[in-house]
Amino acid sequence: MAKEAKRSRKNPGLTGYVLRPMYATLKETIRATLHRPNTVLYPWEKVELPENYRGRPGLVMERCIGCGICMRICPTGCIELVEIEDKDHGKMRKPQVNLGRCMMCGYCAEYCPKKAMIVTPEYELAASSRQDLIYDPYELQHKYKPGYEVHIVEVLPSELKRGAVEREPGREGKDRPELDDKKCIGCARCAKICPTGAAEMGQVGVNEKGKPIKRPKFDYSKCVGCEQCVENCPRDALTMKEVL
Amino acid sequence: MDLYQFTEGIVSWLVGIVNWILNWVGFHGLAGWLGSPDIIKFLTLLGESIVLLAIGFIVAITMIWQERKTLGRLMDRRGAMVVGPAGYFQNIADGLKTLLKEYIIPEKADKTAYNWAPVIMIGSSILLLVAIPLSGRFYMSDLNAGLLFIFAVFSITPFAILMGGWASNNKYSLIGGMRSAAQLISYEIPLLLSMVGVVLLSGSLNIGDIVNAQAESTWFIIPQLIGFIIFMVAIVAEVERIPFDLPEAEAELVEGWWTEYGGMRFGLLMLAEYFRGYAGAAVAVLLFLGGWSGPFLPPEIWFLIKVFIVFFILIWLRGSLMRVRVDQILNIGWKRLLPLAMVNLVIAVVFKTLGWF
Amino acid sequence: MAEMWINMGPQHPMTHGLWNLRVKVDGETILDAEPVIGYLHRGWEKMTENRVYPQIIPMSDRLCYGSSMTWSHLYCMTIENLMGVEVPERAEYIRVIVLELQRIASHLMWLAAFGTDLGLLTVFVYCMRERELFLDLLQSVTGARMTYNYPRIGGVRNDLPPDFGRDCLRTLDHFEKKLDEYEEIFDGSAIFLMRTQDIGILKAADGMNLGVTGATLRGSGVKIDLRKHDPYSVYHELDWDLCTHPDCDCYARYRVRMDEMRMSCQIVRDALKKIPAGPIRVKVPRNAPKRTAFARVEDPRGEGLMYVIGDGTDKPYRLKVRSPIFVTVSAVPIMLIGYKIADVPAIMGSVDMCLGETDR
After folding, report:
1. What is the DSSP string of B278-306?
2. Domain tally for chain B?
């Protein structure tokens, strides 16, 4: 089963000293003289890049909801959310990328729930100072093309056991926040901070003094799984439940 | 009309103008002294050497350009492209850049030897230009033992190398210098023996006589094919190109004995290597390939064309072969080339006694 | 001349990376050697203790940037062993195809550096030209040329593009013809044989005692390849042979790697025929159980191994990497003693150092 080469004392003979390698390179020389050599004359010509080439990250401003998933998943920690004035929604938080630290891994585009972060084919990013490399949300914008998105194409293990090939539609598939009723104090911080409005406070009853007891109700079709409610709950009443 | 008369004419004309100015101003004695035949001869020799130096520089720069472009096409890329037409002025730009670099002399280096080693190297390389004629009428000195002179100047180089390697106070340079000197000394003997074959066939050490003998019979490459091959191998070793590059191998010794030299000293050493390459290729053309004989074009152009063709073979060797290890280099020099050279000598004697060539 | 210690590196034009090789020389002969590494230490294993499991995948690419797909694949296999996840079959086949393409690209880079060490600069450009073809293939699949960020815990990131099979087969046909030409430049040159035969002998017993693995050991006649003897992914379903060579010198190691390149072409062709349709990625739980797990792969440079300790949260407690070159570097003095300084580039070139994984 093993491909074993014979013990070799090869002797290329008298021609081996110079003639055989010279002949091999002569063929290449003649080919490179008659046809074009294999050089791309940058910067007059540029290499053609495929559609899914991962250059710098870009932002499609209309789609971004300011959830902060890109900030959490970035392995180098180069994304920060800054406040800008959005024309429709007032003050919003949008990402700012420090391209000096970015390693162009594409995670921000992959995990973005609204596909507002995209990978763009821009690679000529030289700047004169480190400050110039921090792109605020306006500089980060880039024109959108369908090939620039990165999708997560996964099946759940339960679907895999049933023999499914693709993820069944209808399930949003993000992990869901679950409430621990005993710990909740009804402060409504989760409802205020939710970027999509999936958490809303609803009245579930009246306490002894007659004041309403409020508990958050989640609309799972709107939830994107950004976990801001989980992080900001003062009593740790919310946990993410995984859908497997 | 040969080079001497041509230069003498120009110098006399210039001296005439200067003398006219001096006579008009009133310095008659100075004008008389300036116009005397000894001074004219001295100025003519000076002019000839400037001409030859200029031609040597232009040919060396063209050879570097040729090497860059040919090596580029060998490696499936273009060589230098941007500066000048097809990149011709790139070498001048590189030379100017080398002028701007800083000279760093190592602290414990032996200053005299360190400063004099590149001088001896480049001086002896330029001295070779004196004895290499470009054609029957374009020469500076027609020495009776011109070939011996060339060979003797080739042999000055190990001195410079040993001085440079020792004076740099660097282990790498020392090792490189010793290896280099060993290689050069051991390849001088096959070089000389292959030249002796040609001298036997033509009957004189004068280069003009050798070329005329080739014009009468055949180019000496035909009876002396083995001699030509030995000569080419020995020249590759003398000029220190790949495959006999180990003294300056980048892989282990950085740049060998050149390591501690910076700025224009390094530039001059690189230029000296190309001058010696030109001299080696020129001697190969003169001894084996018929010198400057050829049908339509002027003989100088034929000579230069042949030199560039021989240099192309040297570049091709550089692009396709690997470095040989230093003890294997010495092995090849002593054990393989020397017996072959003896055989070649016997063949030359046989041909001469038979009177075929 | 008296004995002296010479430092080759850390600033040196051609030592394949940032390390220092001190040799003790007497004239030209080497008496002793001492490798000094650690100039490229980046604290990788400590950095992973602060990151969530998916965030470590792009970091594991940068362990050895010469063959980065292998290391991220190794990391994903380790975490899959930890969490008990079963990867869909199409994902396994895609992983094997991409790994073998990466292996060819890594060996081409080795060949380029090997030729340059010996003085042959044209081979550098030729091999990089061929490597561009494989990098273009990998770029069409993953989107990047060197650090791919492609395997995921539970599969791969995206499916193969539609024309991939045709492009891949065309590239492999072209490459095999070119490989014959390059063998002519190396094997047909007596100078190369003079410089690599009987140089750098590493006997099989010495190699196994010191823990050397990979092509370096297979060049000493030992028939060990992790893809055959401890098969992972789908290697046991594909049709290929092990490559070895009985001489223990530099020429044998060169020969083993050239044969491995051809064998990789055969594996890719076979996998392209047998690849099934199906899902390519499965969702994995967020927190890892409180266990330990390890996995090993056959890196182009030897055997790589990763060991993880999970502690119930979504960050690893400890992640340990065993790198093959770290161990081979300790076998370097045995290969060097008794030879000349001029042999050092040939020997070190045949070992194929990549400093990224040595120093982590």
Report:
1. HHHHHHHHHHHS-TT--SSS-HHHHHHHH
2. 2
